[in-house]
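Tokens for chain A. Residues wanted.
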């Protein structure tokens, strides 16, 4: 089992100066580097204090300079908002500067405000996302690139630099819908899942992805499918449940639209009951051990809902499961 941390840059109620948010996150990343984590997975968001990190390559370069062992993951670059050649260049440069430690995760995004502000039509989001992913991979694996499609067109372009990792960094695409999972399987791309799905939903999607991979003549062999899971850990189960509840309320207030997730009923209670892994360290160890078998949880990207949750996971949970 491998472990990473989904590093948000949340600014709740703007209680501290924004530079403090970054300083604390980087201190946490330094702790990860020394305690057995595989990767920090950096998030990209725009125009919201839910997570104030608009550039994964910029933040990733600074994180790489502060660490020696930790892989630098993107979870995810919002590919539909990028010029694909610029994205290929910046990620390849980050891979070189980090000594070949980049994990690339690409996502489509779903926040209407982001699409509206960047003037990217929502109806083009899926096409743009898929083309950007394909172009980045081709830019990395071809000496020169010629590409013609609905949206992008390039003729005999040499995209430099190439990544240090060959043929290119480990990559995943965020796939939450059945259609996105089907496309990823058809293209042979591995997928990232979570953090807002229930464990039962993740299990269904894992099975569907495996079935579709085989249908398209691709194999599960050698793939790791990271699953992001929200974590709330405290000294007592009751205290952890309250952290889970407050975290769910924050998510729903600042970013997550229950309608997009197709939630029926009380969305906060859904998070507490079926999404967030919460409890004492001992209880969380038991839950993760069970989920390893039930939903093929081989690589967890933990998303702690409090600093205490991060520290307890690092000190009490991680050593028992590595």
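Reply:
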């Amino acid at each position: 089992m491998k472990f990473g941390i989904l590093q948000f840059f949340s600014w709740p109620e703007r209680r501290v100066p924004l530079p403090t948010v970054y300083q604390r996150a980087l201190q946490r990343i330094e702790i990860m580097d020394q305690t057995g984590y595989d990767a920090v997975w950096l998030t990209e968001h725009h125009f919201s204090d839910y997570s104030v990190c608009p550039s994964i390559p910029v933040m990733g370069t600074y994180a790489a300079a502060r660490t020696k062992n930790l892989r630098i993951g993107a979870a995810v670059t919002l590919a539909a908002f990028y010029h694909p050649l610029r994205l290929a260049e910046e990620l390849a440069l980050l891979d070189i500067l980090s000594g070949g430690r980049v994990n690339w995760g690409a996502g489509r995004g779903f926040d209407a405000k982001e699409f509206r502000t960047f003037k990217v039509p929502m109806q083009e989001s899926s096409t743009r996302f898929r083309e950007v992913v394909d172009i980045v991979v081709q830019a990395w694996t071809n000496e020169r690139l010629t590409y013609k499609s609905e949206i992008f067109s390039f003729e005999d372009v040499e995209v430099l630099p190439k990544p240090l990792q060959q043929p290119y960094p480990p990559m995943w695409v965020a796939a939450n819908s059945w259609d996105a999972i089907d496309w990823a399987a058809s293209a042979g791309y591995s997928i990232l899942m979570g953090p807002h799905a229930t464990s039962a939903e993740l299990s269904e999607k894992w099975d569907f992805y495996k079935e579709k991979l085989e249908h398209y003549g691709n194999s599960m062999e050698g793939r790791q499918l990271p699953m992001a899971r929200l974590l709330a850990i405290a000294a007592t189960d009751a205290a952890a449940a309250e952290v889970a509840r407050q975290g769910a309320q924050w998510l729903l207030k600042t970013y997550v639209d229950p309608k997009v997730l197709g939630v029926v009923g009380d969305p906060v209670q859904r998070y507490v009951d079926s999404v967030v892994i919460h409890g004492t360290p001992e209880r969380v160890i038991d839950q993760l051990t069970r989920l390893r078998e039930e939903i093929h949880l081989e690589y967890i990207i933990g998303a702690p809902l409090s600093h205490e949750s991060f520290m307890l996971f690092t000190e009490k949970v991680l050593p028992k499961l590595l």
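The longest helix spans residues 237-254. The mean pLDDT is 96.
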